[in-house]
Amino acid sequence: MSNKVAFTMKLKPNVVDEYKRRHDEIWPELVHLLQQHGISDYSIFLDEPSLTLFAVQKVSSNTTSSNEKLREDAIMQRWWKYMADLMETNPDHSPVTHELKLVFHMD
């Protein structure tokens, strides 16, 4: 069983091309790590005028319990640090995220 999770993040000015380049070259070990933690079908969209990123991903039902382990993983922390110069971040370099509430869905 899987669910969809959506959230926003925010880019700093003048970094859109670099953000896209880094994701075009996403580390295979990061992709594997995300998949191990039940994350799949992950897309990130950009609202260019506001520099707001909108992310949506499928997560398996056990993802919530492994989310803390994902946050503690060295690969994830290294990716956050690598991306920190492009985004609004928390003190641990993780991106500032705002979870979005589902208000409509159509199959």
UniProtKB/TrEMBL annotation:
GO cellular component: cytoplasm
A biological-process GO annotation: rhamnose catabolic process
InterPro entries linked to this entry: Dimeric_a/b-barrel (IPR011008), L-rhamnose_mutarotase (IPR013448), Rham/fucose_mutarotase (IPR008000)
Domain of life: Eukaryota
Keywords: Carbohydrate metabolism, Cytoplasm, Isomerase, Rhamnose metabolism
Name of this chain's protein: L-rhamnose mutarotase
MF-aspect GO terms: racemase and epimerase activity, acting on carbohydrates and derivatives
Pfam families documented for this protein: rhaM
UniProt key word Isomerase: yes
